[in-house]
Design a protein that fits this description.
The complex is a heterodimer.
Chain A (H helix, E strand, L loop, with lengths): L14 H13 L4 H7 L3 H16 L5 H15 L2 H5 L3 H5 L4 H8 L10 H15 L6 H8 L4 H23 L10
Helix pairs in contact in A: 1-3, 4-7, 4-8, 4-10, 8-10
Chain B lengths: L9 H8 L4 H23 L15 H8 L14
The chains are: A mainly alpha, B mainly alpha.
């Protein structure tokens, strides 16, 4: 059990919140645990859930790439909950565990990724490992592969998901289906 | 949460509950997580405060002269793995 207990599902009566929970269950990320904890602060819950779903599953950056980045970040954050979740949409688009492990590992030397994908993985990796390395030259390299709107989409996605992963780690959230 | 997440345990939440409701603790937690993520991102973009310490509106160049060449948000980031 997390340090803050999730609301019982039946206690969430707001139609929009229930719809957002259904959307997250369909995607697989987050699952209902995150939404039911967030629902304890109902005014915060809906915009955060909308933003989390939109930043991950919509936009103009490949959802499969964002899914690898999300898992890479969750491992970096030490968050077992988000690290264990998988996007059904990404899986349906062909993302498999081999590619996820490669992206979370030594992706620089992997032949599974393009130069563009490696630069995006590096962006996430360095953001919280050594952000001083993300300088003008780093952004110039990113701009060789991505438009500025795509870079902002990636950066905001990385920042938002990492922040929520640190929140879930602080709550002591375990991987779904496991004991803490 | 940012510098020593292992220190946030059940006793830590018991202490928080002396002062805050469950709703407020969740609100605080997502607020902190959001800022923890975004301040580093904004730091990499070389954003500077729009205002001087005494409240004057600044250009980014003027702000850089006041606040220094490296945004403060990049200094505290430490890996947690």
């Amino acid at each position: 059990m997390t340090y803050v207990a999730p609301l019982p599902r039946e206690a969430i009566t707001d139609p929009e919140m229930r719809d957002l929970i259904a959307q997250s269950e369909a995607l697989g990320v987050p699952d209902e645990l995150f939404a039911r904890i967030l629902a304890r602060a109902p005014e915060q819950a809906k915009p955060f859930m909308r933003a989390l779903l939109m930043s991950h599953a919509e936009g103009n950056v490949d959802h499969r790439l964002k899914e690898i980045i999300r898992i890479q970040l969750a491992r970096f954050a030490g968050d077992k909950y988000f690290a264990a979740l998988r996007s059904r949409k990404a899986r349906q688009m062909g993302l498999n565990e081999e590619r996820i492990e490669a992206g979370c590992g030594d992706y620089e030397d992997s032949d599974l990724f393009t130069a563009a994908e490696k630069s995006a993985l590096r962006y996430a990796d360095q953001m919280y490992l050594d952000p001083t390395k993300i300088d003008a030259a780093f952004y110039a390299e990113l701009k060789m592969h991505f438009t500025e709107p795509q870079i902002m989409e990636l950066g905001a996605f990385i920042a938002f998901h990492y922040g929520m992963q640190m929140f879930m780690r602080a709550l002591g959230a375990a991987a779904p289906g496991s004991a803490r | 949460m940012a510098t020593d997440p292992e220190a946030i345990d059940a006793a830590f939440f018991d202490e928080l509950r002396k002062y805050y409701s469950e709703e407020e603790i969740v609100e605080l937690g997502v607020f902190i997580g959001f800022n923890l993520g975004y301040h580093t991102f904004f730091g990499t973009l070389k954003f500077y405060p729009l205002f001087s310490p005494d409240g004057r509106l600044l250009t980014q160049a003027e702000s850089e002269k006041i606040y220094g060449p490296a945004p403060g948000s990049l200094k505290a980031a430490e890996p947690s793995r």
